[in-house]
Amino acid sequence: MKIAEYSEVLLKDGRSACIVEVLSDTDFLADVGNSPEDWENIYITIDDIDRIVRCNT
């Protein structure tokens, strides 16, 4: 699975996330939340991702 910056992904815990920084092939920073008021920037790994919803490459 190739994850690019600004891809939308579904996490295994059911949350949607937007990749904001690709740290490596397996490590990412992502924003989760419903709007800018409640977005949280989190660290995730490839193992946290269930599938890519929309790839931005």
Spans of at least 5 consecutive residues with low confidence:
none
Mean pLDDT: 92
Overall number of domains: 1
Tally of separate helices: 0
Please give the largest β-sheet.
Answer: 5 strands, antiparallel
Q: Order of strands side by side in the largest beta sheet?
A: 4-3-2-1-5
Shape: globular
Q: Percent helix among the residues?
A: under 10%
N/C terminus separation: 13 Å
Tell me what you see in this structure:
By secondary structure, the protein is mostly beta strands. It has one domain. 0% of the residues lie in helices and 51% in strands. The chain is built from no helices and 5 strands. The chain has strands at residues 8-11, 16-22, 27-32, 40-45, 49-54. Strands 4-3-2-1-5 form a 5-stranded antiparallel sheet, with no helix packed on it. The chain is globular, with a radius of gyration of 10 Å. The model has no long low-confidence stretch (mean pLDDT 92).
